[in-house]
């Protein structure tokens, strides 16, 4: 047998072996559950390290990225990430532009009735400043009368405004909120002297501290579950089942240790809430 024939034979065997391997992976979700059959399309806002971010090569990284890829492998579907800011995500999912919001969206009763939401971690909120700030902030009330940055349309903004309203009802001066589309824009405004303080999730604030660009004054405010949100029940159920398998095989814990995020308090994963009416 000539070398050329031998190589062609080996290549053909490899292709057949790959095809056989692919056949052993059967998608767990019907094609009709996806906007594009067989592809699990997720919106993601890669400006919140270590949850989701872009590395120096422009590649998506973070817990949410790796967790989604691991779950996609369990479900035997192809993960596709759409990068966008958070504000258009909820209307985009409702309009059927993609299958899932994957950006660490906080759980609320309202959201749980709009979508099929699967909690997968826990998160809370920090108040931070520049490292050289002379402010002494020990509680939310200390933001009274201050100019503070927060991402628009987020749980962070919602809870901060609720706390502000309660504070004003007690006779304190209101916070002067300035809203931004991303955490990066908020930090840029803080560094430019346009803000006195800012609000974001604990893990992102921790990341800013590690880079020497922030000092956390108050942490662990308004803690709750964070979720993946789905337009389709079957896909949400398959994702929850995949998370339970990832928990059982150790992948879930390994990823949370790697990225320093807080595990879900529950020992199993499932849709939480009624879902769309």
Largest sheet: 9 strands, mixed
Beta-sheet strand percentage?
25-35%
Structural class: alpha/beta
- What is the count of β-strands? 12
Q: Tally the helices: what do you get?
A: 9
The helix-strand sequence is HEEEEHEHEHEEHEHEHEHHE
How widely separated are the two ends? 67 Å
- Catalogue the unreliable spans: 1-23
Q: What is the C-alpha radius of gyration, as a whole number of Å?
A: 22 Å
Average residue pLDDT: 90
Shape: globular
- Measured as a percent range, the helix fraction is 25-40%
Q: What would your notes on this structure say?
A:
There is one protein chain. This protein has 277 residues and is of the alpha/beta class. It has helices spanning 3-23, 63-75, 89-94, 109-114, 155-169, 183-191, 202-210, 233-248, 251-259; strands spanning 39-44, 47-48, 52-54, 60-61, 78-83, 100-106, 116-129, 147-151, 176-180, 197-201, 215-230, 262-263. Strands 1, 5, 6, 7, 8, 9, 10, 11 and 12 form a nine-stranded mixed sheet that branches. Strands 2-3-4 form a three-stranded antiparallel sheet, with helices on one face. The longest helix is centred in the first third of the chain and has 21 residues, at 3-23.
């Amino acid at each position: 047998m000539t070398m050329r024939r031998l190589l062609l034979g080996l290549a053909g065997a490899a292709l057949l072996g790959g095809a056989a391997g692919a056949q052993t992976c059967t998608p767990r979700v019907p094609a009709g559950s996806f906007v594009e059959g067989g592809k699990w399309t997720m919106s993601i806002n890669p400006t919140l390290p270590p949850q989701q971010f872009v590395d120096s090569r422009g590649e998506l990284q973070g817990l949410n990225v790796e967790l989604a890829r691991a779950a996609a492998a369990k479900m035997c579907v192809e993960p596709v990430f759409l990068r966008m800011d958070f504000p258009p995500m909820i209307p985009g999912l409702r309009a059927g532009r993609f299958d899932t919001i994957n950006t660490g969206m906080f759980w609320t009763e309202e959201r749980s009735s709009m979508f099929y939401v699967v909690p997968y971690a826990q998160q809370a909120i920090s108040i931070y400043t520049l490292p050289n700030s002379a402010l002494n902030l020990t509680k939310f009330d200390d933001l009274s009368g201050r100019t503070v940055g927060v991402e628009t349309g987020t749980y962070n903004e919602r809870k901060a405004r609720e706390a502000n309203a309660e504070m004003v009802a007690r006779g304190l001066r209101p916070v002067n909120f300035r809203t931004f589309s991303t955490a990066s824009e908020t930090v840029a405004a803080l560094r430019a002297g346009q803000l006195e303080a800012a609000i974001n999730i604990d893990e992102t604030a921790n990341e800013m501290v590690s880079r020497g660009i922030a000092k956390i004054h108050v942490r662990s405010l308004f803690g709750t579950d964070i979720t993946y949100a789905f337009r389709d029940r079957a896909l949400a159920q398959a994702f929850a089942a995949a998370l339970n398998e990832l928990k059982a095989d150790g992948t879930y814990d390994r990823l949370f240790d790697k990225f320093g995020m807080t595990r879900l308090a529950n020992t199993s994963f499932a849709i939480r809430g009624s879902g769309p009416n």
